[in-house]
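Because showing beats explaining, we think one record worth quoting, sequence and backbone structure tokens together, and here it is:
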Amino acid sequence: MTTANRIDSLFQRCREEKRPALILYLTSGFPDEVTTRRLLPVLEEAGCDLLELGVPFSDPVADGPTIQKASEDALRGGITFNKTLEILKDFRAQSSMPAILFGAYNPFLHHGLEESARDAASAGADGFLAADLPLEEAEPFRTALAAHGLHLILLAAPTSPDERLRAIAANCGGFLYCIALKGITGTRTEHDDSVIPYLKRVRAAAGALPIAVGFGIGTPEQAARMAPHADAIVVGSALITTIRKAAEAGQDPIPAVRDYVKSLAAALRG
């Protein structure tokens, strides 16, 4: 895709600032709708560059237990795809931070591909990432999104051969999401040494397309270690854990989230 949107502008700015972007994942409606709405501007103020707003779904796709539980909580709270669009639309009224909708393909397909693209664009989204949408079946959704100036972000895995990486990159918009490890989402103490050569392979295949690395990144130290090898660092499960710990302790999660995100942003700007 060549249609410019907020994602393209973000990566151009980060290139000029010689730093990677900080991408944060938050499940829509976690720990409840009101708190999600309160958290979004805090994430931006603390240093988040791009938001992945997760659309909760009953059947996990690549999600570890942390995000699975967050999705279950959100679904019990009545969060739907339409409600997620409402949350994003209200946030967009006060923010220009890029945002993508992240989830399983099923809710987007059920809503209708053209309808999903139209409604997401109206809500202020900049793209979609459907974790279980394979390259071979992605063209109808990519076409629908392109008509509304939205990007379809695709996933690359450590097991992807170079030829497939090139094919994924050629059909991807905005940035290419590199899964850093084999398995599901969740924080890790260390990443395997093979991650760096893998990211170099993706970089070679992606050309000018920015690459983001996620899965297993949870600390400022881990983010800083990956920073020289990617255009963006993605953190999800660790943010969800930060929110849950505060909520379960009966505390407002806002202060803890603000401090945590600031620590990640500082690590990438240091």
Q: What stands out?
A: The first strand starts at residue 21 and ends at 27. Confidence is low (pLDDT under 50) at residues 183-188.
